[in-house]
Write a structure and sequence with these properties.
Layout (H helix, E strand, L loop, with lengths): L6 E5 L6 E6 L3 E5 L10 E7 L8 E7 L5 E7 L6 E5 L2 E6 L3 E6 L4
Antiparallel strand pairs: 1-2, 3-4, 4-5, 5-6, 7-8, 8-9
Length: 107
């Protein structure tokens, strides 16, 4: 679960109780399902830091097991991005930056 204040809560699927909580800089606008991998996989989070007011947007990866921020990629204010984790690579496509491939933290 993500919120406008940057809070992210991961719920235990069996109990519905919080498994971990994390805080990121910016409003959480979207969260991907965890990609399979070691230690709970990787969760991709889309962030808005005032993009409609000239601030930036970003994409961040969190460790699924504990919510630790693994990396972050800033995007321009009006830019949206598509993200996919495939064969040990994180593929990010944005209109301005084109296709960016990063090594997945789980690889």
């Amino acid at each position: 679960l993500g919120s406008a204040d940057g809070s992210i809560v991961c719920l235990d699927a069996r109990t519905g109780q919080p498994a971990w909580k994390a805080t990121v800089e910016g409003a959480v606008t979207a969260i991907s399902r965890p990609e399979d991998g070691e230690d709970g996989g990787t969760i991709i989070v889309h962030l808005d830091r005032g993009g409609d007011r000239g601030g930036d947007r970003a994409i961040a990866a969190l460790a699924g097991a504990a919510g630790k921020i693994l990396w972050e990629l800033k995007t321009s204010p009006q830019e949206t991005a598509s993200v996919r984790i495939e064969k040990g690579r994180v593929l990010i496509s944005t209109p301005r930056q084109g296709l960016v491939a990063l090594k997945s933290p789980d690889a």
